[in-house]
Amino acid sequence: MPFPQYNAMSSAKRRLSARLGGLAALLLAGLFAPAPAVATEALPAFTDDPAVVDFAGDLELRHGFDAVDLLGQFAQVKPNPRVLQLIAPPDSPQQRSWERYRQRFVNERRIANGIRFWQDHPTALVRARVLYGVPEEIIVAIIGVETEYGRNTGGFGVFEALATLAFRYPRRSDYFRGELEQFLLLARENRFDPLAVKGSYAGAIGIPQFMPGSQRRFAIDFDGDGRVDLSRSVDDAIGSVARFLEQHGWQSGQPIAAPARLAEAPEAALIEAGIRPSLTVESLQRQGIAAVADPQALAALIDLVSPGKATEYWLGFENFYVITRYNRSSFYAMSVFQLAEAIRQRRSADEAAGDDEQVR
Question: Is 75 in contact with 47 (CB distance < 8 Å)?
Fold first, then answer.
């Protein structure tokens, strides 16, 4: 979200100077002076950036933070070039490939570990399904795709990463300033040190990789200990994933996706219409797209492209679209769906084999 900008003699500057006074104010003056000319590859310190000072003053005005304390925290971190490298579009974009993407997330390791995760946390998963209507396998698969069931939650300082993107990545600075604000509010509400939290290079946190704004809006204390902890509480992660999907419109008991058969390439307009369901299955069938589904259900035509291979087509229903609210990618949603199906089917087969063994 955008933040109000102040002039060079901003109210934040006057307020901070008055509070510090004397020599300290003279030393702090460098915070408000224009950043000196630097080589293009250099990243000026946050405390040399007037926008950072304005940000701290704004949070003091709107949320009651102490601007001097906030600037002290900014002084303890530096802009991280690696964060900017990871978030920037590649110089030579790699051609999208569903086959390559799927191999990363729908594989034997994640299926086996997903079954183990389900076995280790059955009570929380059942309770989440009952409360929010989201099947256990979908919750498991999202956590599996995001962090391999909590194994890879990220090693970047979240404050440093968000500050880098908020003040050194103009392309999406408004968004990341909003997330940095949400992170600081989250830290205050949950009484943790914002400088101690680790996460992804984009500032996502914990087992389910929630951005701070999503954590404040949708996360839940599912283990009943009085605080939301997505980094150490698996129960909180499970409940929060289910609640996120429910809040975004998950339809309990309804389908997610169905394979589609096409006699020829579809009209470009069907693909360009996007992934939000807007046409009935019946109307798609009249356009030569066959699928086993309720004729009155709304669907979108999903194309899963792999270079050198025939495009895979699916119908995505409302629940498929809801999964894309977690990550706005049809590849992501299909990986979650297919991993969930593989885990569910393998688990059912294992249970059936166990029952047969007991009978014998």
Answer: yes
